[in-house]
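Supplementary notes for students who missed Thursday's class. We covered one full example, reproduced here. Read the sequence, then the structure, then the short commentary at the end.
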Amino acid sequence: MEKHNGYFRKIDFVFYNAGKIREAVQEAKHKPIEHSVNGSGVGDPTAAQAIHNIMPIRFVVVEGNRLEWPEAWLRVYDMTYKLCNALQLDVLMAFYRDEDYKKTCRQLNISQATHSRLKGQFRHVQELCAVQEGLIRIF
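Structure (token representation):
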């Protein structure tokens, strides 16, 4: 699992900062464009703004870190929450609150082995969602 630490750091960054990333994306989407022609070859300011609004945002800067393709990362975030079962979600949310696993185990009445298994399952879901979005490559 050592070679995967790089993209799990990115996944963790997204899950810790999803709210800030959403705000940065909204800010970028609603930012008026400077010129009537924005490199798209469209001279009509309304059309140029519409094109700007539907184009994917290339990157945002959150907490001093550049995150490329933030909308795709937010889809990973949303898909993970949608695809996990209730117990996985409880462990996931505790993990991203930096809650001690022992406390989580006590609160959920699960063993350490179950906690580890559930954590592994939601990590796998995160990984698969990121692969599906084309954000990470396994091989």
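Commentary. The chain has seven helices and two strands. Helices lie at 5-16, 18-30, 45-54, 70-83, 86-96, 101-108, 112-132. If anything here is unclear, bring it to office hours.
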